[in-house]
Every structure is written in structure tokens, then in C-alpha cells.
Amino acid sequence: MPTKVQNPEKTYHSLFEIGILLKALISALELIAGLTFAFISYDSLRQMAFTVFGGELMESPRDFVWDYLARAAHSFSGTPQAVWAFIFLSHGIVKILLITALWKDKLWAYPASAVVFTLFVVYQLYQLTFTPSIFLWLITILDIAVIALILHEYKHKRHGRIAASSPAQE
Predict the structure, then answer these.
(1) Closest CA to 150 of 117, 122, 124
(2) Is 146 within 8 Å of 117 (Cβ atoms)?
(3) Long-range contacts of the stretch 86-90 (C-beta < 8 A, 24+)
(4) Other CB atoms closer than 10 Å to residue 154's CB: what's the count?
(5) 27 and 99 in contact (C-beta within 8 Å)?
(6) 41, 77, 101, 102: which is deepest, by most CB within 10 A?
(7) CA distance linking residue 75 with residue 73, whole number of Å
(8) Residue-by-residue DSSP string for the chain
């Protein structure tokens, strides 16, 4: 039975689509977080978290996950809510706009997205020096992979458009 060899460009394109879909989902979560910080106080958020997870916390107060979440919540509450609202909303809006342009295959969106996402990675690496976070590391690694895929897709699209617009050579 012959094995089917898949076109590597098709694989890269599929990974590109998965990457920007993940970025879109994360951006939607950033928008939700930004709206949450804009309209719900820290005390209300703490109370909601205790209502939902309080029983579990009482059963295993020294659990690694709960300890990590408590430290993360403490680091959030040290910063004014308006700052978090601005950060999450601005990141979410900018990313959604760029991702939408990528989905619509706007050629300008490829380099623009690569630059903006690279700036976010630089900021995230800066943040990681002060507040190490497994979640932020995962997001940063995903961002770096997506930037590489965006640049690959851009190169492929530009090459395809240049080849399509040049006259056929005989």
C-alpha cells in the first residue's frame, strides 16, 4: 500500500490556521478578562471564586494548583484594576483586529501581526523576569510559534502572488 506524502506547505498552512485560531480564542479570553476587571471589583471576584471553589480549597488548602492560583490572584490585586482592564482589552482588541485581517488574507496583516506579536513577546519576557508564570510561558511559546508560522505564510503568499503576477517565461 503506497504511503501518501502530504505537501509540507499544506501542513504549514494548517498549523498557521490552528495557531491563529488559538490566538483568537486567547484574545477573546483577554477581552472577557478586560471587561471583568473593568466592571467587577477585586472583592466581588474573590467572593465569586470562594463561592465556586471554596469547598475544594477547604479540602486541600496546601494543594499546588490552589497555592499557585492564590499567589497569582495576590499579584493581580497589587495592581489597580483599571491597569489590568486596559492591558487585557488593548491586547485583545489589537489581536482580534490583526487575526481578522489574517483570516481575510490581507497581505499587510502578515508583517504587521509579526511585529505586534513580537512586541507582545518582548513585553511578556520582561514580565516573566518579575513574575514567573507557567501560563505566561505557554502563551509566549505559542506566540513565538505563531510568529514563525505567520512569517512562513507571508513568504509563501508573497512568492505566490509575485509568481502569479509575473509573465510566463518560455
Answers:
(1) 117
(2) yes
(3) 86/34, 87/34, 88/30, 88/31, 88/33, 88/34, 88/37, 89/30, 89/31, 89/34, 89/35, 89/38, 90/34
(4) 19
(5) yes
(6) 102
(7) 5
(8) -PPPPPPHHHHHHHHHHHHHHHHHHHHHHHHHHHHHHHHS-HHHHHHHHHHHHHHHHHH-TT-HHHHHHHHHHHHHHTS-HHHHHHHHHHHHHHHHHHHHHHHTT-TTHHHHHHHHHHHHHHHHHHHHHHS--HHHHHHHHHHHHHHHHHHHHHHHHHHHHHHHHSPPP-
Q: What is the pLDDT of residues 47-96, one digit of tens each?
A: 887 787 766 666 666 666 666 666 666 666 667 888 889 999 999 999 99
> CB–CB of 34/88 below 8 Å?
yes
The residue ranges of every structural domain in the chain are 11-160
Q: What does the block give as the cell for 128?
A: 516573566
User: What predicted TM-score, i.e. pTM, was given to this entire model?
Assistant: 0.75
pLDDT in tens, 110-121: 999 999 999 999
- Nearest Cα neighbor of 20 from 114, 108, 86, 107 is 114
